[in-house]
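Please go through this chain and its backbone structure tokens and walk me through the local backbone shapes. Keep your notes short.
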Amino acid sequence: MGSLLKLSVSLLLVFSFHTASAGDPTVVAAGAAEAGMGYACIMKEGFWPAFHNQALLPYQNAFGAAVSYENRFGLRELGTEYAAIIIPAGKASLGGIVSHSGYADFSRSSAGLACGITTGEKLSAGIQIDYFRERYAVEYGSSQALTFEAGLAISASEKVTVGIHIFNPLPPSLRKKYMPSSIRAGAGIWLSGDLFTSAELRIASGHSLGLAAGFEFEAAGNVKIRGGYTSEDNRFSLGTGFLFRSMRADIAFITHQRLGISSNISLTFIMNNNAR
């Protein structure tokens, strides 16, 4: 019975990696605020969006550190933990992120080093080197992969920002292990001082074109309300967040039409009180 349970969890783990956002290179499932917006965030300034699009790193002009946890479908074995830091350096910023998910018989870990720089008043660019490691049951060993991702952020106006992000653009001939490639492109607009809306298109190897859209509304003081939609598997999301001095706490819930509900919580510490 124990072996059957482990096999069932392993199959669900692999399936969820390919159907839920954390296993799809199109989306890094870090940051509850971003989860609440359907991860339509490659154009929105903030701590975790800088790891969805490294071109946003320079806009983080104060030291920051954060942790995030995704509880996928209520199963501990499918949970994913993230930790990250951002270090500003003038017109550039450096970032580092690590993650871990899985259990004794199957796990996935990753680490990334990122750098973003402003190249003008309206343009910034960033790049991140990624290392991935998958560990299987003892008799199957492990596998490793190294790749990179990069992005651009364009300020079309004071209220409109455009983001473009690519993941793993390496040709198959240079890869030792198959890993999907992806591209995301989207735009965000401040409809008012309190309401931000965003939408982006996503496509990854083996997937059809997808749409994600979301909003963030400052309801009262430092309390924010968020909602989002992702066309893949018709996922809906909602969330809220609270900013208190240098700390921000966020929580979000994402539906899946076949597998149920996932929750995401994150704590972000920024060494000033001006973070959005």
Remarks:
- The chain has three helices and 14 strands.
- The radius of gyration is 18 Å.
